[in-house]
Structure formats: structure tokens, C-alpha cells
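Deliverable D5.2: sample structural annotation.
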Amino acid sequence: MRRLVLLRHGRTEWNDTGRAQGHADVPLDEVGLAQAKEVAPVLAALRLVAVWSSDLRRASQTAAAVAAESGLEPVLDARLREFDIGANRTGLTAEAYAAAHPEEHAALLAGDIDAIPGRETHDDVLARFLPALRSYADGLGEGETGLVVSHGAALRVVVPAFLGWEGDPGESFGVLANCGWVVLEHSASTWTGGVERWRLTAWNRAVT
């Protein structure tokens, strides 16, 4: 069996105050640093062989804690970043964005992403994230576990696509908690006649 663990970063001050982050390089706050320190030995116990991370600080700081516990060096990859949400949305709460940019906010609610300057679509995120995730999965040997540290919205989009699910089932997933993780396993199953494939075995696991 091969295994991929996908971890959302720890908390930031912007998470706590409801401000949208996107590609803004916001660091972990004290709570986030504590979350990363708490989850590190739990994931290190899986005997990780590699840690890959978004290069944004909230992810890379989280990855550094787990990698240090595992005796590894994290590999930073910009393809694992969160959605780029556009300059007008970055740093604002939903209420502030609606007040400052009502037309963009209305377009967002209607799903008209193309009308929002600088905002990535699901397809944009998948075009960069999915090849990275597939390459990591393909590089794992039998019995090996790798860790990917990324962001909540991006993970909700990429996991169903990686598994080959149709439509947009990620909308049915609960929001990943800060330092919550996902487990994907590649193994044979009697349900598929012994065919090996990747499966979702856990969503939003947490230390507490």
C-alpha cells in the first residue's frame, strides 16, 4: 500500500478574523504554531518518506514542523498554493468585500469567476496542483507514505479530481480544520476484483 496524507496549514490571524488569504503570504499565529507542533509527532509516526509543501508561509511553517519531527527537509512547490482570489478580495472579510466591491461579490455568489479580476477558477488550480500531486503519488514506493501541506479550498478541489470523481463533489466535503488532514491510500480491494487504485480513507482528521 502507498499512502498520501494531505494536511491543511495551521491557523493564521487572518483565519481567526475571517479575512480571505489567497496568495497573501500570511504567517501562522501563536495558535497555528502550536497546532503545527502538536500535529508533527502524530504524522511523523507514519514514517514519512517525503514532505512537500506550498511555498506560502502558513503552509511552509506547518511543513517545517512535521519535517523536523520526521528528520526530513520539506520541498516547497508553488503549484500547491491556495486559490488566487484576486487583489480586491485579499485581506477582506466577506462583508467588507461585499461592501467595497458589490459587483464582484455578486459575480462570486453567481459562480461567474471570469468576471472577477485575478481570481483563479477550479480548472486553473487543477492545472497546476493535480500534476504535482500525481507526480508525488507516482514517486512513492510500496509501503511508503508522503505528506503534502497545502490549503483548504485547493484541497477540496484537487482530491476529487485526483480520485477521478465526476462533477464537483468537493462542495459536499466539510471544511478542513486548521491542521486537519486527509488520507489517500493506494491498494487492492475485493470490491474492485483486486484492482489497485487510490481511495479516500479519511477526511478532516485532527489531533483533538
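Annotation notes: The mean pLDDT is 95. Residues 87-119 form one domain.
The annotation will be released with the project's public dataset once the embargo ends.
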